[in-house]
């Protein structure tokens, strides 16, 4: 894709290997319609893949397998409308797009939030999946920064995946920033009609203006899948860790500290009981984050990027990685929330923070 492609009031452009999607529509349906049309006009590989007859057979069988589980997950109507708009534009059946969204949800990650003395807030995040899925993601999807504004909602930015309606990270124009992580080694529990976890993150970004509002949203919309969210407020200069379980949650607030961090296990005493086990890789990455941030009073963007590149325990992984950067890391980025900037790796080889450059995108 060369230059800027437009549809309605929205646009998609490539900036040094990063796609920047700017959506400015009057409703969720029209937002999905615009995004889908822009993906089609730019000839996105993932759309061609999902239209492959062999892939359609796989999706048909997966749909059959999860047919009874899909209705258990609550997707707010406005997000269903958004997905229908995308389905109409791409000509990919809505039922398959919904299936893909609910299978993906959130994945293993490492993340941190840091408040500098000048009041600026940085949030760093690496997204990890299995090596096979990470290779597929790099092959069929370019790094995508999506900037969304719908009347009556907060303007927010997130590092996205095409055709995925929820969010697993992001920040909004009210200074609320989120980095989400899956919780591994958890006792399985299903609560019907709980909210899709990635939709919960998106609800926070679209609606919350304070940590109290984040907590209220989480309490009123218990997550279907277990997850962990770093939530920071630049305006309040406070951060919290939200630990979500289908029947419970904890919202731990931190004051008078310059940083917080998380991997893939619950850290609070209240929530640890839901773990069958805590993976060694998650503990190792938490130790790496602690070591990288401990004693720092000031953190620059370049220093934050170096933390995301940390691979002191090697890049290997089994069910999870042992270093912040590992062979499953296919997204790596820094949000400069205060200045509305995204610094994201354009690496085309795994792990992406160790290859390519971090490209600055100005958003909001």
Describe the structure in your own words.
This protein has ten helices and 18 strands. It is an alpha+beta fold and 364 residues long. The strands form three sheets. The protein has a ten-stranded mixed sheet with strand order 1-2-3-7-8-9-10-12-13-14. Strand 16 and strand 17 form a beta hairpin. Helix 1 (28-41) packs parallel to helix 4 and helix 7 (197-207) packs antiparallel against helix 8 (211-220). The longest helix is centred in the first third of the chain and has 14 residues, at 28-41. The protein is globular and about 50 Å long. 50% of the residues are buried. The model has no long low-confidence stretch (mean pLDDT 95).
Features:
6-stranded antiparallel sheet, 10-stranded mixed sheet, alpha+beta, 18 strands, 364 residues
Order of helices and strands: EEEHHHEHHEEHEEEEEHHEEEEHHEEE
How far from one another are the termini? 23 Å
- Overall average residue pLDDT: 95
Strands, count: 18
What's the Cα radius of gyration? 19 Å
Number of helical segments with 4 or more residues: 10
Main structural class: alpha+beta
Multimeric state: single chain
Strand content: 25-35%
Q: Poorly predicted ranges (pLDDT <50, ≥5 residues)?
A: none
What is the topological layout?
Blueprint: E1 4-7, E2 10-15, E3 18-24, H1 28-41, H2 45-50, H3 53-65, E4 73-74, H4 77-90, H5 94-104, E5 109-115, E6 121-128, H6 131-140, E7 144-149, E8 156-160, E9 169-172, E10 176-182, E11 194-195, H7 197-207, H8 211-220, E12 227-233, E13 238-245, E14 248-254, E15 259-262, H9 280-293, H10 301-308, E16 329-336, E17 341-345, E18 358-362
Parallel strand pairs: 3-7, 4-11
Antiparallel strand pairs: 1-2, 2-3, 5-6, 5-15, 6-16, 7-8, 8-9, 9-10, 10-12, 12-13, 13-14, 16-17, 17-18
